[in-house]
Specification:
Blueprint lengths: L1 H20 L2 E3 L3 E4 L20 E2 L2 E2 L7 E2 L7 E20 L12 E7 L6 E7 L8 E2 L1 E16 L11 E10 L4 H25 L1
Antiparallel strand pairs: 1-11, 2-6, 3-4, 4-9, 5-11, 6-10, 6-11, 7-8, 7-10
Length: 205
């Protein structure tokens, strides 16, 4: 009896661990920007996925840790490859946060998902708050959808026609794949069944 109970508990624990491995923060493996600032080798798109500027959950205001377009471009597209298919639940964005260029922060954006990198479906339209030049937390926007590729279309910024647009960092939150949930339920069911059998035998002993 105790052996069965131990086996059931281990099975349930394995299912929980398997689900956890498929959940949590997802950092894209690559990103392509429609435009990058063309001078000095700075403001590259990779800065939004490489963790530069992050201290825990806060992002600094160093322009070396940001991505930005050329001056005069207020709209841009970032396309992320997550490296595998995930069931996503939110996008987490740290806006452009350089204190002498806060008008370059992204404002309105549209988010679209794809499994093959060709056909995209829009799942979200939202507005980012402007950065403040101090340590900045992420802004999280909830949605639901399966994707390997995510396209972030930035529609405008907080500046005028001569300003650029940029971001600090982007990652995503995923939930367990649907196939993990039945395994988890089965594991927990085995635990409950074993405990009920043990209780009945104790009563009739």
């Amino acid at each position: 009896m105790f052996r069965l109970l131990r086996t059931a508990i281990l099975a349930a624990s394995f299912c929980v661990s398997a689900g956890a491995a498929l959940a949590g923060v997802i950092t894209p493996v690559s990103v392509v920007a429609s435009e990058e600032f063309p001078f000095w080798g700075q403001y590259r798109a990779v800065n939004v996925i490489n963790g530069s500027g992050l201290n825990g959950d806060l992002h600094d205001g160093d322009f070396n840790n940001m991505w930005m377009t050329d001056l005069g471009t207020q709209a841009a597209t970032l396309t992320f490859d997550l490296g595998a298919d995930y069931l996503l639940s939110s996008i987490n964005i740290w806006n452009y946060n350089v204190d002498f260029g806060l008008d370059r922060g992204a404002r309105e954006f549209v988010l679209s998902l794809s499994l093959d990198g060709n056909d995209y479906a829009q799942v979200l339209s939202a507005t980012l708050a402007q950065g403040n030049g101090t340590l900045l937390p992420a802004q999280s926007f909830a949605f639901s959808g399966a994707a390997r590729y995510v396209r972030l279309d930035i529609l405008n910024n907080y500046g005028d026609q001569w300003s650029a647009v940029g971001l600090g960092e982007v990652n995503f939150t995923a939930v367990p794949e649907p196939g993990v949930l039945p395994l988890l339920a089965a594991g927990l069911g085995l635990v409950g069944l074993s405990m009920r059998r043990r209780t009945k035998r104790s009563l009739h002993a």
